[in-house]
Write a structure and sequence with these properties.
The complex is a heterodimer. Chain A contains no helices and eleven strands. Chain A is an all-beta fold. The radius of gyration of chain B is 13 Å and the shape is globular. By secondary structure, chain B is an all-beta fold. The chains are: A mainly beta, B mainly beta.
């Protein structure tokens, strides 16, 4: 596609439920990133993919968070047993340069609200 | 881990005024980036800086990569209402070439 696409744009879920957030990167971009943005805050790094592998998962807050990428394209971020503190905007970005994140393009984000 | 201090936290200015915001780091950064985020949207890259001392312009925007590699500033000249938004600095530190560290943002409001 023309840009990074994320779905859904908004998600309201009950505490304890699992959620899946999807990211379609720009076609041909090998690097894919997930960030989390809490209200009024900057962006918190979650995970980085180069192709289908994730060299760096250090930003995932807990083992309830996981992500995968298939076919070097679409990525899914899964949050199990959601908690209220998981409420945030989850942003995905992609880049054609895996080694340097200097031209990362962001999607519009998924706003997750856990009630 | 590495952190960025971005200031000011917010600015409320008159249309036509110039704006300046900056970021500082406790450690050396290899790149400095400036993004703008509009409500409900993801951040959009404005300027990327790769070398210490580099000064780069993009229209009314000018940004510089500090000589010490620990700071950067963004200037906006002759502000207009559509400049409203949140501006973030970001950079790659020495410990990671791919993990962007973001500042907490500067919220800019422009009074017509």
């Amino acid at each position: 596609g023309a840009g990074v696409s994320q779905s859904p744009s908004n998600k309201v879920t009950e505490k304890g439920k699992d959620v899946e957030l999807r990211c379609d990167p720009i076609s041909g971009h090998t690097a894919l990133y997930w960030y989390r943005q809490s209200l009024g805050q900057g962006l918190e790094f979650l995970i980085y993919f180069q192709g289908n592998s994730a060299p760096d998962k250090s930003g995932l807050p807990s083992d309830r968070f996981s992500a995968e990428r298939t076919g070097g394209s679409v990525s899914t971020l899964t949050i199990q047993r959601t908690q209220q503190e998981d409420s945030a905007v989850y942003l995905c970005a992609s880049s054609s340069q895996g080694a340097q994140n200097t031209e990362a393009f962001f999607g519009q984000g998924t706003r997750l609200t856990v009630v | 881990g590495q952190q960025l201090n971005q200031s000011p936290q917010s600015m409320f200015i008159q249309e036509g005024e110039d704006v300046s915001m900056n970021c500082t780091s406790s450690s050396i950064f290899n790149t400095w980036l400036w993004y703008k985020q509009d409500p409900g949207e993801g951040p959009v890259l404005l300027i990327a800086l790769y070398k210490a001392g580099e000064l780069t312009s993009n229209g009314r925007l000018t940004a510089q990569f500090g000589i010490t590699r620990k700071d950067s500033f963004l200037n906006i000249s002759a502000s207009i209402p559509s400049d409203v938004g949140i501006y973030f600095c970001a950079g790659n530190g020495m410990d990671s070439s791919y993990k962007l560290i973001f500042g907490s943002g500067t919220r800019l409001l422009v009074r017509p």
